[in-house]
Amino acid sequence: MQTRFARLYGQRDLKIEEDLVPDLREGQVLLKMAAGGICGSDLHYYQDGGFGPVRVREPIIPGHEAAGYVEALGAGVSGLTVGQLVAVNPSQPCGHCRFCREGLPIHCLDMQFMGSAMRLPHAQGMFRDWLVVPARQCVPVGETVTAGEAACAEPLAVCLHAVARAGDLKGKRVLVTGAGPIGVLTIAAARHAGAAEIVATDLTDAALERATAMGASQTINAATDAGALSAFEGDKGQFDVAFECSAAAPAIRTAIATVRPRGLIVQVGVTGDVTVPLNALVGKELHWIGTQRFDQEFVQAVDLIGRREIDVRPIISHSFPVTDAVKAFEQAGDRATACKVQLTFL
After folding, report:
1. Distances (CA, A) of 171 to 8, 190, 240, 266, 318
2. Do 52 and 75 have their domain in common?
3. How far apart are the first and last CA of the chain?
4. What share of the chain is helix, strand, coil (3-state, %, to 5)?
């Protein structure tokens, strides 16, 4: 059997190709893929050939947030049924390295993360019609949501992990800087965790409209109304927690200025080196921590989406067939109109 897939060779060099589907082995399932979202890292691979030191050094099939329907079960597979919609967990820790043994598989020394160019050979991703994958990576979604919604489990898991890093948010005042897909899903996760007030900032009105739909109490366009943020700097800062999702230096400075003494900044967005006001960070005794990927939060994300306890539909802005993958990636690069752009298959 043949499968189509989108393969990236380098900067803006994306081709639709075909190859044989691998044989189904013990413990694996064959999925008829249905939807896959374009992530920020996928977009960096396409637009720039990579990000920071991570470069596309060989042809790679992108895609690490996707869902599909079970078509066939390999020997020994239980708990899944043919025709079932599943979200695919792209994370494959080794299970035996130092960090896996310590209960920190998120920091696995031999992590295989689908669609990632961090390692060589690259870990191939899910932008394809048919996918053979270990059954343990498939999480049933339920019958009430679409495949597009199910494909949002991976980015939501990232945001649930970020919120978990912040501890108890009940009754807290929260700032979210950057209202792209991760920012607005962080808003939804923070609202679900009990945050009393969530203020979101971004540079575009379209993004802020989605932030409101996902649970923001107030939105501020930092490009046209930056002065509105100064009110939150009074008395050494008004927010208990900030989730910095943009990785833009001005947003990091805003978080440091508006979080109260001994408050918390969770750094969700990534970039290269930036200049930060260390005096303010030290003087306010702020906690500034990082967060990356997820672990058990993937199953939690699937459950929340499956019950629409977190409704991800407002973030899905565009959908393209895989044959129009180039158009999809170009659309994803237009932040004025796009949020989560997805590919569809078969």
Report:
1. 45, 11, 10, 17, 35
2. yes
3. 14
4. 30, 30, 40
pLDDT at 52: 79
- Inside any domain, residue 136: yes
pLDDT in tens, 139-185: 999 889 999 999 999 999 999 999 999 999 999 999 999 999 999 99
Supply φ then ψ for residue 132, to 5 degrees. -100, 125
Cα–Cα dist 199/232, whole Å: 10
Give the total number of structural domains in the chain.
2
Question: What residue type is 181 in one-letter code?
Answer: P
99 and 14 within one domain:
yes
Whether residues 185 and 100 share a domain: the answer is no
Residues 148 and 161 placed together within one structural domain of the fold: no
| CB-based contact 37:124 (threshold 8 Å) | no
Q: Is residue 297 one of the residues assigned to a domain?
A: no
**CA angle (306 as vertex; 301, 308 as ends), nearest 5:** 90
Q: How many CB atoms lie within 10 A of CB 38?
A: 26
**pLDDT for 79-116, tens place per residue?**
999 999 999 999 999 999 999 999 999 999 999 999 99
In a domain, 304, yes or no: no
The CATH number of the domain holding residue 133 is 3.90.180.10
Look at residue 338 in the predicted model and tell me its pLDDT.
93
- Expressed as residue numbers, the domain containing 100 is 2-152+312-344
In a domain, 226, yes or no: yes
Owner of token pair 């390295």: 97
DSSP output for 2-70? EEEEEEEEETTEEEEEEEEPPPP-TTEEEEEEEEEEPPHHHHHHHHHSEETTEE--S-B----SEEEEE
d(CA 209, CA 301): 23
pLDDT of amino acid 51: 84
Kindly state the DSSP code that residue 183 receives in the 8-state scheme: H
Instruction: Write down the pTM of the prediction.
Output: 0.95
Token pair listed for 121: 């050979």
Amino acid at 44: H
166 and 142 in one domain?
Answer: no
Contact 259, 286 (CB under 8 A): yes
Q: Which tens digits make up the pLDDT trace of 48-68?
A: 998 878 899 999 999 999 999
